[in-house]
Sequence to fold (517 residues):
Amino acid sequence: MAKISFITRDNETITLEGTSGSVMQLAVDNGVPGIDGDCGGVCSCATCHVHVAPEHVAKSGDANEIEADMLELNDYANEQSRLCCQMEITEELDGIVLQVAESD
Amino acid sequence: MLDTQTKESICVIIGASHAGINHAFALRKEGWEGAILLFDKDPEIPYHRPPLSKTYLSNAEVNVLKSVESYEKDNITLNLGVSVNSINRKDKTITLSDGSNQTYNKLIIATGARPIIPPIPGIESATHLYPMRTAEDVANIRNAFQTSKNKRVVIIGGGYIGLETAASIKKLGGTVTVLERETRILARVTAPEMSEYFMQLHAENGVEILTNKNVTAINNANGVNTVVCGDGSQFEADIIIVGVGIRVNLELAKEAGIVIENGILVDETACTNDKDIYAIGDCTFHFNPHYNRHVRLESVQNAVDQAKIAAAAICGKSPVYNSIPWFWSDQYDVKLQMVGLSQGYNETLTRKEECGTKTSIWYFKDDILLAVDAINNPKAFVLGTKFIKDGCKIDKSKLVDPSVNFKPAELLV
Fold:
């Protein structure tokens, strides 16, 4: 069980609990605005882009190669960017705070 | 045009797949206070379609588009396993297959498309012949494969559906043969270099792809099919999968007097010639400002984007649909990402990255970049999207030189 908090583009904090699956799916199932997951979670669309709070970067893990490539040229990406369809929910993520990234 | 909407207003959506579902939730987000009623003849809780030809075949679980709780939370009503018989514009109702009527204030047609089953002689008596469009099709294919002794699968059609299905089935074992009518696969949508790439990829994985094979008959004896081609060649098949394209489900709209042109014709807000009826997704023929022509797109991106446009329009905003189309296909461990529409290209450039399999094909019309096909190369996809959108002028000699960094600063004139 992990408590995962999303800060939306309107600065609203939504805290959800998940046990398994991707962080994107948890967000989509709960209607977190700004996380769309259009491609169904296969790292092909970047509509699940989040910024991990700097103090939580260690527990979030690194972006994989495809993720990094998708993010590298994204205007809104920063060092803490992740595509959350590639983040598996485990206990390690408990307490993580994710800022929903801007997009076009 | 904005009509005042209230808690008593009713929005009816015909079709609960990518377009319909995304529209329902977008509508609620945009502030629609009234009822949102979805109707679909598929009895399954709405699911993602792209994985049907990819992972669903081996992994039995369907990914739902939204959890059951999401519908309840947003007060969206799902009526599954229900067919709509007609749209009655005069009294603003739809008639269901059980004869009952449902009124609407706003109607969304998100009926999508159905797979073409070509009129090949003998096709009605073929055994274990399936299209690839629904969760039920996949369940049938999976069962047939599991219970088949010889597991010889023939796939008719060498487009994305046929190729993805071939890759997924091959993963389960068996003998897979793809029969493509044209001289090369993916002929309609890509350059010859792409056809070659995928021919080789499939060959490496043990799938036989044969081109110039026009299926002219399917014979059946004792439960074994023989697929016969125009050149006389014959292929025995325990299972046949047909992936030769789709027909738009436009009959409801047509019968109701909605203007049809290669699909349901809509304006830049996804509205039809009836101000209270919108159409979204695979079923529409709409204008793309970037390419300056009308298009009909069979993609998740179009379904999702049009769904949101229609929601904004209904709630009084004035959106304009202007997206660069994009698309993806997964076959074996190759990720193909495509952006743009290549129709009308007069030049292609290929860039092979220094390491291994990353390749991209760039479609130009003179100096204008129309589209990019990126193979295992998300950077090319992202960069291509940016360049197309911004109308950038690209230094072509640098583009094809893998030693030049893949960054806008280095590639633009």
Notes: The interface with chain B takes residues 28-31, 33, 36, 38-46, 66, 69-70, 72-74 of chain A (CB under 8 Å). Chain A has a mean pLDDT of 93. The first strand of chain A starts at residue 2 and ends at 7. The radius of gyration of chain A is 12 Å.
